[in-house]
Specification:
Chain lengths: 406, 293, 274
């Protein structure tokens, strides 16, 4: 027994004396946005990070978008969350509210170059829970050839829905299957459009829904009239299951309000001239904003290393430039170099509109259950388009259901 | 059967061990977890769940949505079950003929079954799209103006039924065909000698003897109907206007999109009770029509 | 009589041929789509046959994606799962079909009930159980849950019920052991449903992607459906590549089916069922 103790003591002593070599840590990173074409760019970013941080190794796992969130939720529930993972703005709120992700200590990192709206989008109160990596907004994309044929002047950043409609009607008149403008009618479009009309989905402190306010009803009426009255926007039947992008690419749509992520696709697949402008508003400008962020799991055992990696992907000029050169959305670290690289890729020629639009970004109500609210509201919006309900009836009923439920 | 009762008891247990173990670990425990979760407000990604009693169940029965979902499911069942039963039985009877080419048809008609639901649904979504889809282009040739199959609330569920029958027909006809093949051929010869005509043989011999298989098909298709999921997710995602919202689609949406796993579990328990009830009724009724040798 | 029968065969042929064409149209559309370039997918009027046939999608799946590795993983997982399922289900089905024991009906009803809870709800508890066993990121974690297959038990039971008791009693009289009766009498006589089960399970496991997606986190262990699901990117779905991949991944199941189908008929002729 004594002998055994002696041996143990020696072993422990030896173990304690081994020089404290700085330990190499490995972090796991789960993402969806590099899938389908940007894997190499992400690898380049990881390589750059590992060179700068030789003691941190990053294991990347990339999943398809369709199942990413199911997968992620299962792993988080099973206590197997990756150290760093990607979240879109819709899911960020839920993960933060439910305490699945860590508040980030960014004191050691340079986040000064990050575009402020995107940084703010991933805060709860004043606490930073996620770091944006890339973002995109929405602009008006127009078919120059159709504008020329109809003899209408090109859109400018001072346009409102009135000028947009006038142009759309002239383009619509060019042919039975040529349409003027496309803006979908769904919740995600609705919250923005009501802001353009001076309304909003919720009151200022977000304590109550104001779905059926006079401004909102008016905005919905304007949206629906474009389909059912002037028909400058095709009905679902006329669209016939064809995607809005496909309609534009086929050269039969004058204007489309959509995300800047369409640029790559349109540049390759449109055989006509096109350009962009700031999205027209009804009374005010307001435009969408989407962003993807990286977050750190609260269960991670290597939070410091994980945070360093997240900060690198988000705020570092190296990662931003790699992203800009690969045409992978807009990096959030908007250095002059990055802006120049982004503008260098044409069409569209008027890329300044993308940056001008940053002044008008609106965000959906910051509501944990916004996804469920959106789905419920969608049903009433569809009923209004189908003519089963008037805009007022639809919003009254939606207001009654949604304020009772959430 | 009562052979060597005591010895048999040991082997019965032994033979059941793999399934019972699998059942306990991969079914019973998860089912009990689901039952427990149905009384909680578990949000999947957050911390430990709180017990909230029957709130989830009360919410379910008070919601408009639940009745819409049930109506949708009933609509599916009332079209799909007769459709698949009759068509697979007819197809199986054709498969059962002593015709050379029949083997080739059996392989070819099985191809939809082999296609994954994901690929199959994506293809059908494009075929069924209103104005530019293949189906409406074909109908236009014969002068029919086809509806917007997946975006018109009146047609969406019918389209789902159509696609489901397309996918399942090869499978269930094969199962019934298997049942037909196991019928003793001497019975047919005896009936022919007795001068029975083809219809009489069908009614008095074929149909009764294939009832165990038909029972199997009925139980399975009804369970499948309540669990309708991948085709809905890809083709309509529950729309238009909730016309194709069904139970499993709701369970998925609540559990993984809204992070309300407690509510989703309660929905699953309600679904379980419904299916068990329906299946038990079928088990009782089978004595009236299913014929075991 | 003879003439009559021939005429009927003719009309049956006609019906079957018509039905086959209708069933295969979507499949032909898949093939056509897989040979289209990205631009031709949504062209108006629709291109029934691609104007420009391109093999780009097929080239992509074999060169840009780890297709062969995933193919191997899929074969490994599907074959093992299928064998495990058939083994455990046939044992249980034999007992349920031919013997009475206490709580038999209760047990069978419980089994059936378990078929009715959707994976969307039991998924997370099963994931946690597998995690406790240390089976995350292992093939065993995907294969093991297939040991319990109610569908298989139910299907085999329905057939085995119709096997005459005389065969079993005779075998026991000859001094056969319990296991010998199962292996030498029941299994050969159940070749038809077992082949059906083989095809169905192989196909289900081949196409399944919920489990492999969640359990196998190492990209080297990815199965085919998981690989194909990656063709859904954030903004677009590469439909043509997806179709090419789905078609190629169907070939193994078609082979299994074509083989099983032959064996299936032979099993009927050679087995005890006349």
């Amino acid at each position: 027994m004594k002998k055994l103790l002696a041996v143990l003591t020696v072993v422990l002593f030896l173990a304690a004396c081994t020089p404290a070599k700085a330990k190499e840590v490995t972090i796991k990173f789960l993402n969806y946005s590099s899938n389908g074409g940007q894997e190499a760019t992400l690898t380049a970013m990881v390589d750059a990070f590992e060179v700068a941080n030789p003691l941190i190794k990053v294991e990347v796992e990339t999943l398809g978008y369709a199942d990413y969130f199911t997968q992620l939720a299962t792993r988080v529930a099973g206590g197997q969350a990756p150290d760093v993972f990607e979240l879109n703005i819709e899911n960020f709120r839920a993960y933060a509210d439910k305490g699945a992700i860590a508040e980030l200590d960014l004191s050691k990192f340079d986040i000064s170059k990050i575009q402020p709206t995107t940084l703010k989008a991933f805060q709860i109160g004043t606490k930073q829970y996620g770091l944006p990596t890339k973002f995109s907004n929405v602009v008006l994309i127009y078919n120059k050839d159709l504008f020329d044929q109809a003899g209408v002047a090109y859109p400018t950043s001072s346009w409102t829905w009135a000028e947009e409609l006038a142009a759309a009607q002239k383009i619509r008149a060019l042919g039975t299957d040529i349409y003027g403008v496309f803006r979908p009618i769904q919740t995600w479009e609705f919250y923005k459009t009501v802001v353009q009309n001076g309304g909003s989905m919720m009151n200022a402190d977000q304590s109550a829904f104001t779905l059926n306010s006079a401004q909102n009803v008016e905005a919905l009426e304007i949206m629906i009239a474009r389909i059912n009255t002037t028909n400058v926007t095709p009905t679902t039947e006329q669209l016939g299951g064809m995607g809005d992008w496909d309609l534009f690419k086929s050269g039969r749509l004058g204007m489309i309000v959509t995300g800047i992520w369409a640029f790559n696709d349109f540049a390759t697949n449109c055989d006509f001239a096109w350009d962009i402008a700031v999205e027209p508003g009804i009374k005010n400008h307001a435009t969408h904003f989407f962003s993807d962020a990286v977050v750190v799991s609260k269960d991670s055992k290597v939070i410091a290393a994980a945070t360093a990696f997240a900060a690198f992907l988000s705020g570092s000029p190296e990662a931003a430039l790699l992203r800009a050169n690969a045409n992978w959305d807009l990096p959030v670290a908007l250095t002059d170099e990055v802006i120049a690289a982004f503008k260098a890729v044409v069409p569209p020629a008027n890329k300044q509109a993308v940056f001008d639009s940053l002044n008008y970004l609106v965000m959906p109500p910051s509501l944990e259950k916004f996804g469920a609210v959106a789905d419920d509201l969608q049903i009433y919006l569809s009923k209004a388009i189908a003519g089963e309900l008037t805009a007022k009836e639809a919003l009254d009923q939606a207001q009654a259901l949604i304020s009772g439920k959430y | 059967m009562k052979i060597m009762e005591n010895k048999a008891r040991f082997y019965i247990m032994l033979f059941l061990v793999p399934s019972i173990l699998g059942f306990i670990v991969f079914s019973l425990i998860p089912m009990i977890s689901a039952l427990y979760l149905s009384f909680t407000n578990w949000d999947v990604i957050g911390g430990a769940p709180d017990i909230i009693g029957f709130k989830n169940f009360i919410d379910i029965f008070k919601s408009v949505e639940f009745y819409r979902v049930m109506t949708n499911t009933m609509k599916f069942i009332s079209l799909y079950i007769p459709g698949i039963l009759v068509s697979s039985l007819l197809l199986a009877l054709m498969f059962n003929r002593t015709m050379k080419s029949v083997a080739a048809f059996r392989v070819l008609l099985f191809i939809p079954v082999l296609t994954s639901w994901i690929a199959g649904s994506i293809i059908w979504k494009s075929i069924l799209s209103g104005q530019y889809g293949m189906l409406n282009n074909l109908l236009a040739i014969v002068g029919i103006h086809g509806p917007a199959w997946l975006t018109d609330p009146k047609w969406a569920m019918i389209s789902i039924v159509m696609v489901s029958i397309w996918k399942d027909l090869g499978f269930f006809s094969l199962i019934i065909f298997g049942g037909l093949r196991s019928i003793d051929r001497t019975l047919y010869e005896a009936a022919k000698i007795d001068g029975a005509n083809a219809f009489q043989i069908l009614r008095k011999i074929t149909i009764p003897l294939v009832t165990p298989t038909l029972f199997f098909v009925l139980v399975t298709t009804i369970i499948n109907s309540f669990q309708l999921f991948p085709q809905i997710m890809v083709m309509t995602a529950g729309g238009p206007m909730g016309a194709t919202q069904v139970m499993v689609e709701r369970i998925y949406t609540y559990g993984f999109r809204y992070f309300e796993m407690g509510y989703a579990s309660a929905l699953a328990i309600v679904l379980l009770i419904i299916i068990v009830t329906v299946t038990l009724i079928q088990m009782v009724l089978q004595k009236k029509w299913v014929f075991y040798e | 009589m003879n003439k009559n029968l021939k005429l009927k065969d003719g009309s049956v042929f006609f019906v079957l041929a018509g039905l086959t064409i209708v069933s295969l149209v979507p499949f032909l559309w898949m093939i056509s789509t897989s040979f289209k370039g990205a631009g031709a997918l949504m062209s108006i009027p629709i291109e029934w046959i691609p104007k420009e046939v391109t093999f780009a999608s097929y080239v992509k799946i074999f060169t840009k994606l780890p297709f062969m590795k995933s193919l191997f993983n899929s074969i490994l997982v599907s074959v093992s799962s299928t064998l495990l399922t058939i083994f455990s289900a046939s044992l249980a089905a034999f007992v349920f079909a031919k013997f009475d024991f206490k709580y038999k009906n209760l047990l069978f009803t419980l089994f059936l009930a378990s078929m009715m809870i959707p994976i969307q709800v039991t998924g997370i508890p099963i994931f946690i159980i597998l995690m406790k066993f240390g089976l995350i990121n292992s093939y065993v974690g995907v294969i093991l849950p297939t040991i319990f297959n109610v569908f298989g038990i139910f299907l085999l039971r329905q057939y085995m019920k119709n096997i005459s008791n005389d065969f079993i009693e005779a075998a026991f009289m000859d001094g056969a052991s319990f296991f010998q009766v199962y292996w030498k009498v029941i299994i050969p006589m159940s070749i038809v449903p077992i082949t059906t089960l083989l095809v169905v399970n192989f196909m289900n496991y081949w196409n399944d992607y919920f489990w492999p997606l969640i359990i196998l986190t190492d990209p080297n262990k990815m199965t085919l459906p998981v690989l194909l699901s990656k063709l859904n990117t954030q903004y677009t779905t590469e439909v043509n590549t997806l179709m090419a991949g789905s078609l190629v991944s169907m070939i193994p199941i078609l082979v299994v089916y074509a083989f099983a189908q032959k064996y299936f008929i032979r099993g009927i002729q050679e087995g005890g069922i006349k």
